[in-house]
Structure formats: C-alpha cells, structure tokens
Amino acid sequence: MHVPHGARRPGATRVTLLTEGTYPHSHGGVSVWCDQLVQGMPDLDFDVIAVTGTGREPVVWDLPAQVGEVRSVPMWGAPPEGRTPRGRALARLAAAYEEFLTALLDPRAESGFAPALYALARAAADGTLSPFLRGDRAIALLTSVWNRPGLAVREARPTVHDALTATALLEHALRPLAAPPPRTGVAHAVSGGVAVLPGLAALDRHGVPLLLTEHGVYLRERYLGYRTAPYRWPVKAVILGFFRLLAEESYRRAALITPGNRYNRLWEEEGGADPGSIRTVYNGVDPAAFPPAGPEPGTLTLSWAGRVDPIKDLETLIRAFARVREQLPDSRLRLFGGTPRGGEAYRERCEALAAELGHADAVTFEGRVDDIKDAYAAGNVVMLSSISEGFPFTLIEAMSCGRATVSTDVGGVREAVGDTGLVVPPRDPEAMAAAALELLGDPARRRAMGEAARLRVIEQFTLRQTIDTFRSIYLELPTLQRPSEPVAAPAAPLPTPAPAPAPAGTVAG
C-alpha cells in the first residue's frame, strides 16, 4: 500500500526509513525513536518503507509535512503481483535459488549467499520471485539440497511437509525485495533482518548508501523466538541460516552502523562488521517532557510500561511480584501498555499466571495510557523484565522522571542505568524480587537513586544529542559510501545454533 503525504522539496536531503512492525503503523519504543528523528529534522525529507503484517494496518502516527510517502510491504497479506518465469529466465532463477539454499545449509558454500540474494532481488523487482517460490520447482530444489550427503540437516530426515513449510516462510521473508527501493538519498534501516532488504537492493542497484541502526540484536531475537517455534529442525536450519547470513551481509555492506549500545556493537563485530564503520548512538529523551514525577503512591507499587510481548517476559515479573507480596501483602503491580495484534494469547497466559499464583487482585493490566509519564508516576519503583533490549526508552524515560528502577541485565541496560538503579539477571524472579524488596523497603535510597537517574539522563541521554548526531550522519553518509558491487567473500560467522532433536511441528497459520 502506497500512501502519498508531503510534497518533495528540491535540494532537501532525503532519507528513506526502513522499518518492520513499527513506525508509522505501531506504537512502541522504536516507533517513538523514528518519530523523534522525523519531527526533529524539519529541514530533511523522509520516506518510509514499512514491512507490516497484512498491509491493512492504519498509520497511527501524525506524520509531519516532511514525510513524503509511506509504502507498506505486507509480509502475510496477498502475495506480490507477478508471473512465473519461463525458459532461460526460469533456469537462471532456479540456479540462483539453489545457490541461495546451498549457502543457508552448507557452511562451505556461504560465500554464495550475497550473489544469490541480489539475483533474487532482481527477480523480485521484475515480479517473478514470489510466483516462483510458490511453485513446485522451489519445493523440489530445497528437498534436493538438504538431502545432499554430508549436510548435518540431512540427519534430521527432512520431509515434504518441512519443505513446504520452509519454502513458504522464505517466500514471506523475501517479500520486501519486491518493494521499489529508494533511488537517491540515504536508506536508513531502523532494525536488522527483513527491513534491510530494500536497502540492500537500493545499494546494489542504485548505489544508495545504507545506514543500519539496531536497537535490539535482531538475530539474537530470532534465535530466541525460533527456539520454541512449532517447526522441525530442518525448517529452523533454513530460516535461521537465512537470518544469520542476512545479518552478516547487512553488517558488511552498510556504510555506517549505529548500534544503540555497546552490547549490540559486539554482535555486529562478530558478524563481520568493520569496527571503523560502527558508531554507538544512544537513544535520548527530552528531560523537559519527562519532568520529576512527584510524590510516590501511598500503596507500595511496582509499575511497568511497554508492549505486552513474550520478549518483555512479564511472566518472570509476575513471579517476582508474587515473592514480593509474600513480605508486602498490600503491594501492587500495575502493567501499562498495549497488546499487539496476535499477542492476546500471551496476555491471557500472564493473567492466568497471576490468578494461579493467587495475586489476580493485585496485578492489573491497564492498557495504553494517554500520558506515559503517568505509568512511571504510578510506581514507587519502575520495573523492566525483558530478555532482550537495545537501549530501552521506558527505562531512560522513567529515569528522567526521577524514579528508581529495577531492570534485567540485557542489551544496553547497564549503560543506561549506571549506578542509579538495580540490575538483575534476566529470567530470575528471585533476584528481581530481592531487588524490588530492597528498594521498596528504603524510601531514602529510592529518592537518592531517582535524583541521580534524572541527572544522568540530562548529562548523557538527551534527545537533542541524538537528533544532532543523526543529522550529521545523514549529511555526511554519502562521503562514507562503499563500492556498490556485492562482496562475495564470507565474513566471520555469527553463532549458529547447534542442531536439536527434530520435534514434531506444524505449519504456522
């Protein structure tokens, strides 16, 4: 879906934001960050290529005039229009796809990934890739490749059902290649993974410089998500192989990589990124927009803000609260934030857990709040329980509001908090409960931590610093651009998950 918006201005620097599941169709930390950049640079022009679910998602942000157009690329809606190739075109595409699959499954052939990916991108541009991947030839090629002697995945005895599932997942994952890539300016991918695909195509076809910002480590989150996904190992080997090699290619080809924290930088260097092409840029908030929250609630309360999603690990937070309530029976846990479409089952699971532990009366899911500051003010202590984060907005916003925090040790959390809050291991309800009890029992310490947290934000994590840094990057990036020819040499590989026993699985709906 293509949505025209503001008029193009001659001579203005143009930035195309490449997003997935975020701005401008969804709320959340990354969407807030995108909106900050766009609103903060009225002198630059922006377009958006947004990878979405069905393509029917509404635009939920007020777009300023400098946003020229928004193009939605649906992953799970109707497939891209096109036709099945024939003759020599079919033979070329089949050969490229076979090379692509071989790279995903055979460590000795990984250097073929990049050339094959760009060949698939050209097929997507002329409308033949998706029809090809929905045909029998693609299924047969995968069945042939992963049954070759010597490949580890062969030991799991892949089935035709596995081939159908893996091919369907690849067809959906590669759909962003069909989006018309930007021809000028800068392509700025605000996450890794499939959002980068139009940027890689723009670089290969038009020499448009690619800027990559990772708030969380996309590949790590795919590993976490697919660990419990309902697919057999052969399917996971194909899909995780794709995400791993795509991450390496993205790191290798980006003119500049701007992780939101030093933790992400380590993954990017392991993935083959040139350390000289990495520049850490922290998220920022406007301290005036997040002033001190004022008096604490009279009832001892833990508050949390974010989207209701498994990666936020609310189950650990609820289990920790149950331990808190054993010592403070009148305490409360208030959870603020929306539930994304498709996440209803997870919220229901969390509500059921609170009821099972006997605390349904004290755990409240309060949905989206009109003013997020109210969520931070609602707690004596603000909690963050995620198993993966970049440099979380909710944390630095709560710090700016002068609240003490308890957070899990993931991503850039320690870099954000310093010594102004308590940091505990992820997935550890006992440690989280102990930290929460420590702060709930010491009002003076909470107050001192909150004051120090706000000062830390003012000194290090302001929105003005973030916007000024990215404006400079947008203006200088063309001078940093690398050659547009694909690089075939393999980079140092990112971690590959060890083969697991092949569980029974079904095609996801």
TrEMBL record:
Q: Name one Pfam family in it.
A: Glyco_trans_1_4
Which intervals of the chain are annotated as region Disordered? 485-509
UniProt keyword terms in alphabetical order: Transferase
Which stretches make up the DUF3492 domain?
14-275
Q: State the InterPro entries in the record.
A: DUF3492, PelF-like
Q: Where is the composition biased (Pro residues)?
A: 492-502
**GO MF annotation, one:** glycosyltransferase activity
Q: Which Gene3D superfamilies match?
A: Glycogen Phosphorylase B
Which NCBIfam families would you find in this protein's record? PelF
Protein name as catalogued = D-inositol 3-phosphate glycosyltransferase
Task: List the gene name.
Answer: pelF
